[in-house]
């Protein structure tokens, strides 16, 4: 297996993967960013019976919401303005192989409905298509969010969550398996050497220092650091001094970043919108943008207020400063599930 690490958590993961490789079961891989979720999906593909088929990977967070359905299921010619020809979706592209759906928590509700139906029926239709297409791709989904909680808040379909959660694989953060760090470092040093960088070793003290760090970026951060050290270190062995210097650098960088007010809601929206505009060829999304964007904000806002008031619509209306009838209309329009009573 291409996965490195012998910590109890990793060994448990290997046992699970060994049982899963020869099956077509849908697997839900969860864990913080950089813990190896995509690598697990690849491993399931590369070691399984579908290894000669394609491995197709797609990130739900990177697809503009209204394109998501057609991206995954494909569309017929003329399905919407601009659909000048038939397009094959990811599920069909992955036929005979594996489809990896990253950031499944960002899958729009309508798409979740279609996805669940496909999982249950084993077939799907393209957008505006009438011919059913047999689903023949092994599906691995990943998330770094708490799907159960999203489902409770009405932001993810509960039935889909239960369907996906039949086979969960959890990846712990790197700081919870620091005993894996020496093996990982050696592995990344070997990889750097394979890429033509000078072959380096690492001192025991440097390793100890690496094990005492908290690794918010997990294995990805470790991999990048090892690579940087390989390039920067003049000597054949990476010592603690070099590691310390790098840590100081990142810490200075991190505090500089957190000084800047980059975390405001407005800036998050601006960032999201500029990515969204950039995802369209001429920088112009389809018309009707205002309503679509407002709905994106309304839905989680109302769902969270309902959740906070345990489904009490009178209190939710007050909390939002909305008229009760307006709230009722919006709940209906946005198809927000209302769950009453304590949880
Ligand atoms: N257990 C592991 N052994 C070897 N490399 C790993 C391991 N976990 C993660 N990596 C490497 O770390 C990087 C981030 O992994 P990735 O699968 O993209 O994480 P995630 O999808 O959880 O964000 C990749 O380059 C991957 O190859
Ligand atoms: Mg990833």
Q: Which short descriptors sum up this protein?
A:
binds adenosine-5'-diphosphate, five-stranded parallel β-sheet, 9% strand, single chain, Arc Repressor Mutant, subunit A, alpha/beta, binds magnesium ion, 3 domains, Rossmann fold, Helicase, Ruva Protein, domain 3, 343 residues, globular
Tell me, briefly, the overall form.
globular
Name of the top-level CATH class of the largest domain: Alpha Beta
CATH-assigned fold name of the largest domain: Rossmann fold
Distance between the termini: 42 Å
Q: What fraction, in percent, of the residue positions are helical?
A: 40-55%
Strand percentage lies at 5-15%
Bound molecules: adenosine-5'-diphosphate, magnesium ion
Gross CATH architecture of the largest domain: 3-Layer(aba) Sandwich
Count of folded domains: 3
Instruction: Give start-end ranges of low-pLDDT stretches.
Output: 255-261
Let me know the largest β-sheet.
Answer: 5 strands, parallel
- Give the ordered list of helices and strands: HEHEHHEHEEEHHEHEHHEHHHHH
Mean pLDDT: 89
**Tally of helical segments:** 15
State the fourth-level CATH superfamily of the largest domain: P-loop containing nucleotide triphosphate hydrolases
The radius of gyration is 23 Å
